[in-house]
Amino acid sequence: MTQTQRIPKSEKWAFGLAGLGQNMVYNYATAYIMVFYTDIMGLLPVAVGTLMLVARVFDAINDPIMGKFVDGKEHKSGKLLPYLRWIPLPMFISTVLLFVNPALSPILKLLYAYVTFILWDVVYTISDIPYWGLSVMMTQDPKERLSVVSLARVLCNVGLAVSIVIPPLLIKAQGSNGQAYFITGLLMAGIGSALFTLVGIYGKERVQQDISQEKSKLSDLIKNKPLVILQSSRFLGAFRMVIATAGLYFAKYNLQDEAQFSILGGLLIASMILAMLITPWLKKYFTKKWLYNASLILGFFAHLAMYMLGFETLWITYLLLFVSGLSLGLGDVIGYTMVGDTVDDFFKKTGQRMEGLIFSSHTFTTKLQSAVGLFAIGLVLDQTGFKVNISQNAQALQGIFSLISLLPAIACLLSLLPMFWYDLKDQ
């Protein structure tokens, strides 16, 4: 393939729509599962937080293993596509199982939650690493790759919007009970998994390499300095990644109307999509590192202002959430393209591309972010006297508010620190 060969629009849209479907599934599960566990299954917040920490750390460890497995296997139909073709059905089944409330004792309910959540997480890993690895295998042209990733991230956030805006309305309309969560999960998993089949049908692997010459090891990731710095930065931003889950508690208890989460989440996602649409234009004038850092600085000031002003004036809270969404959207697109750059840089230095292993580090970090962030939610709720399905005391309400304001502000500041050592140039 030549550097200038273009990817057909139909293939770009198939890739992007698959991401939309995957994000419908992923974000419904991650945003609503903690509330489902505490408010429907009756599990203690600190027990749920511990579950999230243990399960996601366990699964995060599997990501590099999965990445290495992908890098070391070549099938007749490709290196990554075979995984993408059979995973939609397990994705659907494992997601539906998450939102079953079995008639068991509290201990057995907790055990059921551990088993089904870990199963779902493993299935997601098998879908996610080959999916984003394919973005590098589709083309070597940096502009085409940015085009593919930008469209995909926009559509991924459309999927995020659907999974945040629609479910609260459906759940409330059905009585906000266990059956409502299950039926909504059935709908989100069904549509999302069906859309994800598109990438397996229409995706193409154009970048060829000799797998027999690749003997990648997990330790090779440590040698990839730009990748280590980037993922360290992302990990330190863990509290930014649980705004959706924290926002659901905020809407239900601080605003006393969980359907308000549709407005809150809708504004957040709209701003993220807007940022993603203008990112390719911004890239003409600024480096990726500059834009990534700018997204963190913008997020810091938005969340800090939110915390200082409080949530009594709701339109100000929503406005600042919109600004924080701009920072998230910008950082999201740039972050994925920077990972792609580390693939090319490592190939230039070593002769190994390692799409699977390198992109597994990205999902590894994402899951560690989620693990730490969700554990923090459970800990804050426990320490501030939170009680399910009743009016909360002032301390609990302030604790919930800090989860969408103060903690994300601190996370933005921490994320900036490793980037002082990031020296990979765009070219």
What does this structure look like?
The protein is an all-alpha fold and 427 residues long. It contains 16 helices and no strands. It has helices at 9-40, 45-71, 81-86, 88-98, 106-137, 142-173, 178-202, 220-223, 225-236, 243-254, 260-282, 288-309, 314-350, 355-383, 394-402, 406-416. The chain is globular, with a radius of gyration of 21 Å. The two termini are 19 Å apart. The model has no long low-confidence stretch (mean pLDDT 85).
Compact overview of the structure:
This protein has helices spanning 9-40, 45-71, 81-86, 88-98, 106-137, 142-173, 178-202, 220-223, 225-236, 243-254, 260-282, 288-309, 314-350, 355-383, 394-402, 406-416.
Helix and strand arrangement:
Layout: H1 9-40, H2 45-71, H3 81-86, H4 88-98, H5 106-137, H6 142-173, H7 178-202, H8 220-223, H9 225-236, H10 243-254, H11 260-282, H12 288-309, H13 314-350, H14 355-383, H15 394-402, H16 406-416
Helix pairs in contact: 1-4, 1-5, 1-6, 1-7, 1-10, 2-5, 2-14, 4-5, 4-7, 5-14, 6-7, 6-11, 6-13, 9-14, 9-16, 10-11, 11-13, 12-13, 12-16, 13-14
